[in-house]
Amino acid sequence: MRTCFNSVTAGRHQPIEDIIAACGLVGFEAVEIDEAHIRTFVEHRPIEELEAIIEKAGLKVASVMPFDLAPFDETGLPFSRIKRGADDSKNLHAPVLLTYCAAMVPEEMTLETAREKAADRAREYADAVAPLCIALEPIGRTTVMHGPRAALDIANRAGRDNVGIIMDSFHYYRSEITKEEILSIPADKLLLVHLNDSEDKPRAELRDSHRLHVGRGILPLPEYLECLEEIGFQGFCSVEIFREEYWKEPVIDVVKEAKRTLDSALAAAGIH
């Protein structure tokens, strides 16, 4: 497995060039770049300069993110965003657009209809961004796409080879995803893994702000990593944390600790 840092972990207010420099310095292999960082950068500088900064740091871009699947949206705005994201991804040589789905099934709609609408939107996105990939991220305790089986169902219904899924340790824990469910994920459909930890709270009360550095909380990360090894996942494990406490720290400190704790977890699992 390969190491990656999600730029949101350092804070959307921090300059992306500082985050990239820190990631290269501590030895990360890749970054995920939040679209907000890209928009801020290109207000004053061409995206080609960002590409050069990434190359100088010796990094790859694992994904550009996040984009809302928004299966029930009728405004067209999410579709416009992902098309712009595809342009950014091509400029930065990012193969994946991370696409989450936090939707709940409307009261007047069946789960079957909701999944079909989600698949229709995934197909629409996939066709718009090809040959780049759409990676569907389940969001914990939602009802349209709460875990890997739901995400794979939607991906299969979409019927496009460039639609896969994401595993996020925090969301899988919130949704009580079992070891058996993780082991059932085809490795070629798992495009990216988010590794993070969590405070010890009831699952229903957990929010993104409760995330912690890897190994500092109560998530069953050794079991998750064992499952990833067993299915043959060889992609990027990306540290994605939304914690205001970390956002107040110097970028280099956040990045160093993310790398140290990720490396420690991978080593403890026998992954090198």
Blueprint of the fold:
Blueprint: E1 2-6, H1 16-26, E2 30-34, H2 35-42, H3 47-56, E3 60-68, H4 77-92, E4 96-101, H5 111-129, E5 133-138, H6 148-158, E6 163-168, H7 169-174, H8 179-183, E7 190-195, E8 197-198, E9 211-212, H9 221-231, E10 236-239, H10 244-247, H11 251-268
Task: Write down the overall geometry.
Answer: globular
Strand content: 15-25%
- On the 0-100 scale, what is the average pLDDT? 98
Uncertain residue ranges:
none
Separate helix tally: 11
Second CATH tier, the architecture: Alpha-Beta Barrel
Helix content: 40-55%
Number of β-strand runs: 10
What is the CATH superfamily label?
Answer: Divalent-metal-dependent TIM barrel enzymes
The top-level CATH class is Alpha Beta
**What characterizes the major β-sheet?**
8 strands, parallel, barrel
Major beta sheet, strand line-up:
1-2-3-4-5-6-7-10
Listing every helix as H and every strand as E from the N terminus to the C terminus, the arrangement reads EHEHHEHEHEHEHHEEEHEHH
Class from secondary-structure proportions:
alpha/beta
